[in-house]
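Supplementary Methods. Inverse-folding protocol.

Structures were first reduced to a discrete structure-token string of length 374. This string, shown here, constituted the complete conditioning input.
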């Protein structure tokens, strides 16, 4: 699942109010960011000219305070949204898993680490995305209005940031999904080993599992390092691109300021606004990595919520135990169990037979992990 997949909308219903507040505050903060550039430029010009700085200083302080308040509002609203959504999803997954016989380790990871990984999507990625949709456009329009030549440079270079971010993001999404699958495999395998530890000790096979667990954890470690390596590399690429673009604007403004074709105040505002045209998109590219694992967890939630007993399943559970009625099971397209009817009452029941006769297949069907063919 992508970090902005339309399927995410159904999960956002419990946090609709806080998300609206966070979105509005982020947009207003973007507008104040442009006002901050004008206020700071006016303050510096007044200081350079030896004029009164009271008015400019008052506006600067007011803008900084307003941006700080809006930032606090965004943080509180996104934190509330993350808590509401993760709590609601955890309750829905728990209810859906009451009749789910999947591996408990995978379900435990989804309910703990998985749903916790969705919170950065709200607290970091979503605010960054809202700012990236509003601030660059407002900044480019302001720069074009002040200095068309600088605005042309910014308008031509800004689209390169999302292009490079998208190229890196597609690879990041695949790496994050692989890391999530390996984490589920690790948790499920470790839980199976712990459950079967008495049997392994009795047959002197407990030590042999050490190498297996070490191999599984090593694969997860390598996947995590590969994801982090890609995240750091993408950040360097985006930073380098933005730095070169701002340098082009600075050189152009500096040469024209030295030649006297551009006034000091306009040059300062353009230089203060130019980095802000790239910064929101760079932040989205960086926060995409934080949202990638959360998006994978959302996909796991969808699978858990969509899990329903298959129609026609002839394995039933009641107070008397497990009842099989004319059960037929295939494994790899080959019939293994055909026409089996049995009742497993409360207590111990032994399933015996030669190797390959379908004992494990039968137990998988009873656990709900295998759909009977008849």
């Amino acid at each position: 699942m992508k970090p902005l997949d339309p399927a995410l909308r159904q999960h956002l219903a419990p946090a609709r109010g806080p998300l609206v507040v966070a979105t509005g505050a982020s947009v207003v903060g973007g507008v104040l960011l442009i006002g901050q550039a004008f206020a700071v430029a006016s303050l510096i010009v007044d200081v350079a000219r030896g004029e009164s700085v009271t008015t400019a200083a008052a506006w600067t302080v007011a803008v900084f305070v307003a941006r700080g308040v809006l930032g606090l509002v965004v943080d509180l609203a996104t934190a509330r949204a993350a808590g509401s959504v993760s709590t609601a999803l955890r309750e829905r997954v728990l209810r859906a898993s009451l009749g789910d016989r999947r591996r408990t380790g995978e379900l435990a990871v989804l309910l703990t680490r998985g749903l916790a990984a969705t919170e950065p999507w709200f607290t970091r990625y979503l605010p960054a995305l809202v700012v990236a949709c509003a601030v660059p456009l407002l900044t480019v329009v302001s720069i074009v209005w002040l200095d068309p030549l600088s605005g042309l440079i910014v308008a031509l270079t800004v689209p390169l940031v999302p292009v490079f971010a998208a190229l890196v993001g597609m690879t990041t999404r695949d790496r994050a999904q692989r890391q999530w699958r390996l984490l589920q495999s690790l948790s499920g395998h470790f839980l199976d080993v712990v459950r079967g530890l008495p049997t392994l000790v009795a047959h002197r096979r407990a030590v042999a599992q050490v190498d297996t667990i070490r191999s599984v954890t090593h694969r997860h470690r390598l996947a995590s390092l590969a994801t982090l390596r890609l995240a750091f590399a993408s950040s360097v690429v985006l930073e380098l691109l933005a730095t070169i673009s701002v340098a082009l604007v600075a050189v152009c403004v500096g040469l024209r300021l030295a030649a006297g074709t551009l006034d000091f105040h306009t040059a300062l505002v353009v230089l203060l606004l130019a980095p802000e045209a790239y910064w929101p998109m760079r932040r989205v590219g960086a926060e995409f990595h934080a949202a990638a694992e959360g998006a994978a967890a959302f996909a796991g939630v969808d699978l858990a919520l969509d899990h329903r007993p298959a129609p026609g399943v002839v394995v039933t559970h009641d107070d008397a135990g497990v009842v099989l009625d004319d059960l037929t099971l295939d494994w790899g397209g080959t019939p293994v169990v055909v026409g089996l009817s049995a009742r497993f009452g409360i207590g111990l029941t032994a399933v015996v037979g030669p190797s390959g006769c379908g004992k494990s297949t039968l137990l998988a069907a009873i656990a709900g992990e295998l759909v009977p063919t008849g």
